[in-house]
Structures are given as structure tokens and as C-alpha cells.
């Protein structure tokens, strides 16, 4: 709604993404997730902050607390991250409530990025569910989700390896990075160079 009346929103995902400055360290702790709400696909940003020595154990906004607890536990047990001495703050930009498991991988990536102090490149998106064994699981409508990030100009999309095959037939200008486990995702995304 504007002064002149209703205006169409051509890209609703822009509301949920912040401006990125590639030379800034502010990118550590940010990851992009893709969610489907009804028939609409939204690309949104997950923010994480890991702070050692804080009196707060955990604060979660926009993510189910039980889901966040599970992802943090899997990061510690299956991926070997020593998060037990860190306060972890999670936030979904613009107050969006992430209710589906397709955002699990982005949540984990944001936490890793903050904990390792390693910014994720701004052209990478994450789609996938995390199992208790650290395995990555596919989610419904993978094709629609990947097409949405490709249209927005993202160059890479990290997904569960099991979903790779079904996306091969799609003609899109994006590199699909399939990973089997959370540990494999960390080793792929957070390596030097």
C-alpha cells in the first residue's frame, strides 16, 4: 500500500533478504533458506550469532525452539562443533515464522558460519532437512525451490544428495551442490579458497 493505492510486489522475497556488502565481515552468520507457503516460494535469510561467555544459553526468533535445539544437538554430536560453551541466537529476517523443515540446512549453515567466523558467499542458498544422524533429507517441491533461487541470481544451491537426480532435467543457471551429511556440507561450504 502506498500513497497512490495498492502496488504489486513483484518479488516478495526481497522483504526477507538484507543488503549484502561483499567486503564486510557482517556476513558471518547469515544463510539463505527457501520455504514454500501455500503456492508461493519465499527466499529468506536466517541469522545466527554464537557468542562465548554469554549468560543467555539460547534465543530463537522465527524458528521453532524444539527444531533449533535438535539442529544444534546434531551439529555438536554428528558434526563435532563445540557449541556447548556458546550462547546461540537465531533470527529469521522480517519476522517470518519458519515452520517447515526445508530451512534446517540454512539454520545449520548460519550457526556454523557464526561459530567458525566464516562468511557464506552471498550467492549460495540452502534447501534441506537434517536428520538425527546428521544425514540430509530431501523436502517436497525441490524443483520449485531451486528455480526460485536461480531466478533471483543465486549461483549455488546446497541440497541433499538424494535430490540431485530429480533436478538434472531442469534447465537453470545454477550449480547444484549435493551433500549426503551435515559434515559433508560443512567441509564443502566452509573450506578455504
Automatic annotation (TrEMBL):
Database matches in InterPro entries: Ribosomal_Su5_D2-typ_SF, Ribsml_uS5_D2-typ_fold_subgr
Coiled-coil ranges (or none): none
Domain of life: Eukaryota
Pfam families for this protein: ChlI (PF13541)
GO biological process: recombinational repair
Protein name: Lon proteolytic domain-containing protein
Organism the protein comes from: Asparagus officinalis
Amino acid at each position: 500500500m502506498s500513497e497512490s493505492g495498492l502496488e504489486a510486489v513483484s518479488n516478495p522475497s526481497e522483504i526477507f533478504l538484507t543488503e549484502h556488502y561483499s567486503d564486510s565481515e557482517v556476513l558471518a552468520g547469515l544463510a539463505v533458506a527457501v520455504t514454500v507457503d501455500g503456492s508461493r516460494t519465499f527466499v529468506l535469510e536466517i541469522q545466527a550469532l554464537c557468542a562465548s561467555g554469554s549468560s543467555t544459553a539460547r534465543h530463537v526468533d522465527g524458528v521453532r525452539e524444539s527444531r533449533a535445539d535438535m539442529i544444534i544437538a546434531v551439529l555438536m554430536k554428528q558434526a563435532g562443533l563445540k557449541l556447548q560453551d556458546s550462547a546461540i541466537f537465531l533470527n529469521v529476517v522480517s519476522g517470518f515464522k519458519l515452520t517447515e523443515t526445508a530451512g534446517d540446512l540454512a539454520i545449520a549453515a548460519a550457526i556454523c558460519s557464526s561459530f567458525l567466523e566464516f562468511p557464506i558467499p552471498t550467492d549460495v542458498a540452502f534447501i534441506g532437512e537434517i536428520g538425527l544422524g546428521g544425514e540430509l533429507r530431501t523436502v517436497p517441491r525441490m524443483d520449485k525451490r531451486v528455480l526460485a533461487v536461480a531466478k533471483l541470481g543465486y549461483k549455488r544451491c546446497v541440497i541433499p544428495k538424494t535430490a540431485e537426480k530429480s533436478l538434472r532435467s531442469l534447465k537453470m543457471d545454477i550449480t547444484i551442490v549435493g551433500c549426503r551429511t551435515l559434515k559433508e556440507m560443512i567441509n564443502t561450504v566452509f573450506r578455504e579458497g
